[in-house]
Structures are given as structure tokens and as C-alpha cells.
């Protein structure tokens, strides 16, 4: 065990949890109507709790167990069987590696929340998210990070998929799942309401930016120069994408908005994620500059060409960003085209099929969508019995 590595990953674990709670909750919560903000908070918090338990029960074993095959890790480490305070994973206590990866298993299904807010059933959110994490996310983790079929020497050749911190594992899977759920769910009755609190959006984005240092820097799994470089390029990409999004908005619409500026931040962060362990600061600058414009145009395509009501643009920002960053690894010659494109296609098809099947199956057990009255009045009061703001008190 290395004490410095252990100390850094303890901090990184806290930072990644901070991304979901409270970062993502505030970012998404500010983008919805005032009558829906508590339901968004509820989704993020409840998912964090449920994924933590399911990761202990079976998720970690499926992803990182050594008793399975190239497709899954088996159930030998279910409930952390055989893992104690003295067990090691590299230079880290294995229980710390478990906790660090648990925060990734929390935020990935939480990202999907942005696609279906304002009209989804709370029971569906929990049942779907739990099954999706176990049956879709955890196997993909095994394929790419756990020694599975897409690693070096796997089905894509001697050089496997390069995905440092989750461009495919986190952002492509969550983005595609979000797009499919939004398509099946159908549009909101009112798609034109503006964000109720852009201040929340900015604060949430700022928390995500800070937390992303743990997300990408921690994925080095060591306190060394590689972690420092990952942290640095993450910051450069986020800063550049923020400005390129705002500039493109200014050119197209005559004004640059706060919500646009900070959405660009998230686009830059998602795009640099898979490449953060491989690129240098100048390459990060290029990734961020393109990501701010590319993801903004993807928003228009999803909304106006595909006519899919992905409420908070999960696919356009996270999905497209993660896919773009994964491809840029091959563009810069830091990975093979076969592995990068092959990984995207294999995981994309798998995620799409599993997500669609789960949506249909879970909808048989618990309602997929709230009724029209609940959607109009907002689930905060109708489903959870609370209001975010009581102006009369």
C-alpha cells in the first residue's frame, strides 16, 4: 500500500460523490420549473443511496470480480466477499478502490435523470436505475476497466479501448440511455418553460467542475504526475468549452447566457474525460474549443431534427461529448481507430438494447409516466408532498 496514493484517492472519492450530491442535483434542479425542483433533488439523492447498496451487493463484483469471464466478473466478490482492510488493489486498499468506483456507479445513472425529469414516475426511476446499473453499466465497466473483452489483447486487438475516466463507460452509456428513455417517454406537455433558477445551474456546474478533478485526476489511481496532468487538462478543456459555447451562442443569437456558459463547461468536462490521461494541455485546448460548439449543435439536432424531448440535453452534452473525446484519442494517435470506434459501437449497441428492454419491462411493474394532472401541478407536491419555495411563510 502507498500512503500518498491512498490519501489522494480518499479525497478523489469524496470529490466524485460531491459531483452528484450536491453538484448534479443543483445543476439539474435549476434547469427545471420551480414546481419540479424537489423531485430532481429526490431522484439524485435516492439514486445515490440505492446505487451504493447495489454496488456492494453485486455491482462491484460484476465489474471487477475475477471469477467470471471477459463478459462479466462473476459474483465472487458480492457483498465484498473476501475483501478486508488489508486487501490491496494495486497500491490502494481494495475497499477504497471499491468506494471510488462506487461513486462512478452513482453518478452514471444519476446523469440519466436529466432526460426524463418533470414527467417520470418516481418508482420507475428507482427500479430502472438499479437494474440498469447492474445489467448495463457494471458489465461495460468490466469490459473496459476490469480486464474484459475490450481491454488490451481483447476482441479489438492488442491495443484495446482507451477510456481513461469514462467517455464510453460513463458518458456514452448514460447519454444513449437518456435518449432512448426520452424517446419512449414522449415529450413534456410544456417544453418551452425556461430554467427557474439559473443561479442554481451555475452553482451546480461549479461544483461539478471542482468534483471532476477527482473524477479524472483520481482515475490515475496514484498521486503522481499523471494525476496532475489529468487534473490540468480537465481544467483547460472545461474553461475553453465554456467560452466557445458562449461565443457560438453570441454569434447565433446575439447574446451569451449564463446557462449556456456553464453548459459549455459540462460539455468540455465530458469531452476531456476519456482523453484526460493521455493528452497534453494544447490537445485539451483543442478538445474544449470544439466541444463547446459541437455539443451546442447536438442540442439543436436532438430537439429540432430528431424531435426528442431530452429535457436537460443529457445525450447532446454528455453522450456526444464522451463520444467525441473518445474519438479524439485516435485523432491524436494515442489509441487505435479500430479500438476506439469499435468500443463505441459495441457499447452503444449493447446499451441501446439493454436500456430499451429494461424500459419496457420496468414499465409493466411501475408506471413510466405520471398522470397529466401530476405533470401539470408538478411532482414536488403531488408525489412527494413538499414545495421547494413557500412564499407565504
From TrEMBL:
Keywords of this entry: Ammonia transport, Membrane, Transmembrane, Transmembrane helix, Transport
PROSITE patterns the record matches: AMMONIUM_TRANSP
UniProt cross-references to SUPFAM superfamilies, sorted A to Z: Ammonium transporter
InterPro entries: Ammonium/urea_transptr, Ammonium_transpt, Ammonium_transpt_CS, NH4_transpt_AmtB-like_dom
Segments forming domain Ammonium transporter AmtB-like: 7-389
Mode of membrane association: Multi-pass membrane protein
GO cellular component terms given for this protein: plasma membrane
Listed PANTHER family: AMMONIUM TRANSPORTER MEP2
Protein name: Ammonium transporter
Naturally occurring in which organism (per UniProt): Ruegeria intermedia
Amino acid at each position: 500500500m502507498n500512503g500518498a496514493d491512498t490519501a489522494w484517492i480518499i479525497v478523489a472519492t469524496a470529490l466524485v460523490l460531491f459531483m452528484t450530491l450536491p453538484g448534479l442535483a443543483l445543476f439539474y434542479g435549476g434547469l427545471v420549473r420551480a414546481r419540479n425542483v424537489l423531485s430532481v433533488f429526490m431522484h439524485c439523492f435516492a439514486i445515490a443511496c440505492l446505487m451504493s447498496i447495489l454496488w456492494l451487493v453485486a455491482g462491484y463484483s460484476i465489474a471487477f470480480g475475477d471469477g467470471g469471464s471477459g463478459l462479466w466478473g462473476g459474483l465472487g466478490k458480492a457483498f465484498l466477499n473476501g475483501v478486508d482492510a488489508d486487501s490491496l488493489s494495486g497500491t490502494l486498499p481494495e475497499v477504497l478502490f471499491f468506494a471510488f468506483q462506487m461513486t462512478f456507479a452513482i453518478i452514471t445513472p444519476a446523469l440519466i435523470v436529466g432526460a426524463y425529469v418533470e414527467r417520470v414516475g418516481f418508482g420507475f426511476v428507482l427500479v430502472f436505475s438499479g437494474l440498469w446499473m447492474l445489467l448495463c453499466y457494471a458489465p461495460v465497466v468490466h469490459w473496459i476497466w476490469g480486464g474484459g473483452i475490450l481491454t488490451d489483447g481483447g476482441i479489438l486487438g492488442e491495443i484495446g479501448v482507451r477510456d481513461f475516466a469514462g467517455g464510453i463507460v460513463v458518458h456514452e452509456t448514460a447519454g444513449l440511455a437518456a435518449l432512448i428513455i426520452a424517446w419512449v417517454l414522449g415529450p413534456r406537455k410544456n417544453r418551452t418553460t425556461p430554467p427557474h433558477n439559473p443561479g442554481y445551474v451555475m452553482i451546480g456546474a461549479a461544483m461539478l467542475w471542482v468534483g471532476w478533478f477527482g473524477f479524472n485526476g483520481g482515475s490515475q489511481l496514484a498521486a503522481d504526475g499523471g494525476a496532475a496532468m489529468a487534473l490540468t487538462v480537465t481544467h483547460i478543456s472545461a474553461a475553453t468549452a465554456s467560452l466557445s459555447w458562449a461565443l457560438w451562442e453570441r454569434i447565433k443569437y446575439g447574446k451569451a447566457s449564463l446557462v449556456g456558459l456553464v453548459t459549455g463547461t459540462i460539455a468540455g468536462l465530458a469531452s476531456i474525460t476519456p482523453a484526460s490521461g493521455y493528452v497534453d494541455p494544447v490537445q485539451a485546448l483543442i478538445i474544449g474549443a470544439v466541444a463547446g460548439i459541437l455539443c451546442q449543435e447536438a442540442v439543436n439536432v436532438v430537439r429540432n431534427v430528431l424531435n426528442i424531448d431530452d429535457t436537460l440535453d443529457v445525450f447532446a452534452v454528455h453522450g456526444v461529448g464522451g463520444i467525441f473525446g473518445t474519438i479524439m484519442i485516435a485523432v491524436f494517435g494515442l489509441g487505435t481507430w479500430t479500438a476506439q470506434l469499435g468500443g463505441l459501437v459495441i457499447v452503444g449497441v449493447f446499451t441501446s438494447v439493454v436500456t430499451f428492454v429494461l424500459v419496457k419491462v420496468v414499465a409493466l411493474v411501475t408506471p413510466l409516466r405520471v398522470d397529466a394532472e401530476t405533470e401539470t401541478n408538478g411532482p414536488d407536491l403531488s408525489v412527494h408532498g413538499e414545495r421547494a419555495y413557500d412564499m407565504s411563510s
